[in-house]
Amino acid sequence: MSFEQLLAVLRARWAIALATFVLISGTVAALTLLAPKTYTAQGSVVLDVKNPDPIAGMVAGTIGNPSYLMTQIDIITSSRVALRVVKNLKLTTNNDMRKRWQDATKATGDFELWMADLLRKGIEARPSRGSNVIFLSYKAADPAFAASIVNAFVEAYLEISVDMRTAPAKQFNQQFDTNARALRANVEAAQARLSEFQQKQNLIVTDERMDIETSRLNELSSQFVGMQAAMADSGSRQTAARSNADQSPDIMSNPLVSSLKSDIVRQEASLEQLRTRLGEQHPQVVELKTNLNDLRAKLSQEVIRVASSLGVSNNVNTSRASQIKAALEEQRAKVLKLKTIRDEAAILQRDVDVAQRALDGVVARMQSASLESQALQNNVSALEYARAPAVPSEPRVLTNIALGCVAALIVSLFLTLAIEYRDRRLRTLSEVEALFQQQLLGAIPSFKKPSRLSELSSRLSLSKKPPVRALTMNA
């Protein structure tokens, strides 16, 4: 159908199109004007994803993740937040809401949960594109009630965020407290064992007696080594004096032995002179022989005495070495005993240190968890609180009327074309030429115009056959 034919159809059936347009647009306008007014209150919260945690001192890696924003939206619209809203606003005391709950559920189920689900269905949370802001909106017939619901959801979300952050810290704090008590008992038990051991052994872990006893042991070892050398020297000198007294340096270096040997040599020289001059039987020779024998006897006695003194010195050295060796063995046993005691004390002290370090670590972590459990700061803050709107958001009068007019226009156009399709007529001269395949010679104008009412009734009557019908190709 050409545009000329469309205009001809609309011109011919304008009454039907106009009636349809007025009916639909009027209905839409009436429904829009009679519809109850709805007010939409809107608030917003902002997520701070850059500032570090004030206690841990670091930024959580999941905060910058896009899913974090959607997680917060799910938290806002969760039953936990909605139940907090019901609790904060004390909606359970509203008799009208309780009556609605009884009528809807026959008083079955939980009233608070029913109200929370009702509020969850009405609240809308959407993220802002390209930012960390979440907008909250709620629709209600009362603007003040809508604003109060949005603000209550904002406050409840902030409270729940703090609770979700501090609740694990509180649980960890309780667990750390229990562990700290057990570890403190371990430290006290280990310290008690160490103190009991020190009192029993009369030992202080930081005592310097170990160093003193070790120094004494080293000194006795040095003395014993020196005494062994002295004993070996005196023994060799004693052996030399017994086996070859004439060549023993100790005997030869004795002043009395040297003096006696000198007197003997001098007396022997005098004896040889007197023996040569006076003979063997001369009284002087006899006297000199007697004196010489006395000197030799004294020399023998002195050699024996000196040799005996060397034996006594060797015996003294041997006895002293034995004493030093006994003292050395006793001191070594004492040092070993002290070392064993110190090792046992060191083990007990190590147990105390290990238990103390474990306790210190748990106490430090418990203090951190305690600070986290008491922290009221959060990375979520309210950006804008809702205010009671002055203009209703629904119904949109101008928008609805405009859309109703467009819809009425489209429906009236399609209805007119549908009626024309069922009652097809020749409207233009070009249709006649196209239908008969003949050139048009002329057209007789209508000299008598029918009345408007008869024309409208004839056009609205689809069963009445018109005087001139369009010829089809099948006719």
Could you give the topology of this structure?
Layout (H helix, E strand, L loop, with lengths): L2 H10 L1 H21 L4 E9 L18 H11 L2 H11 L5 H11 L5 H12 L1 E4 L5 E8 L2 H59 L7 H35 L5 H4 L2 H24 L4 H92 L5 E5 L12 H26 L6 H8 L15 H9 L15
Antiparallel strand pairs: 1-3, 1-4, 2-3
Helix pairs in contact: 2-12, 4-6, 4-7, 7-11, 8-11, 10-11
Number of beta-strand segments:
4
Structural class: mainly alpha
Sheet with most strands = 4 strands, antiparallel
What's the tally of helices? 14
Q: Quote the distance from N terminus to C terminus.
A: 20 Å
Residue windows where pLDDT falls under 50 for at least 5 positions: 54-63, 460-475
| Overall geometry | rod-shaped
The average pLDDT value, as a whole number, equals 75
Order of H and E elements: HHEHHHHEEHHHHHEHHH
Q: What is the CA-based Rg, rounded? A: 65 Å
- The helix content, as a percent range, equals over 70%
> What is the percentage of strand-forming residues?
5-15%
Order of strands across the main sheet: 2-3-1-4
